[in-house]
Amino acid sequence: MDDRTRDCLTLAADTSLSRARVARELDLLMVERNWPKMIVSDNGSAFTSNAILA
């Protein structure tokens, strides 16, 4: 979700999304758009991982 425009930039639905899957979805999104200045997660430190940081 783009906080400024409130646009849904991508949507991935499944029964479970691994950290690697989230990172892959973000990579696919970045092919279509520029890299964001910031990524905000509401899951706190539980969501921070090497897959996302890489």
From TrEMBL:
Chain ranges passing through the membrane: none
Protein's UniProt name: Transposase InsO family protein
Superkingdom: Bacteria
Record domain Integrase catalytic: where: 1-54
InterPro entries, A to Z: Integrase_cat-core (IPR001584), RNaseH-like_sf (IPR012337), RNaseH_sf (IPR036397)
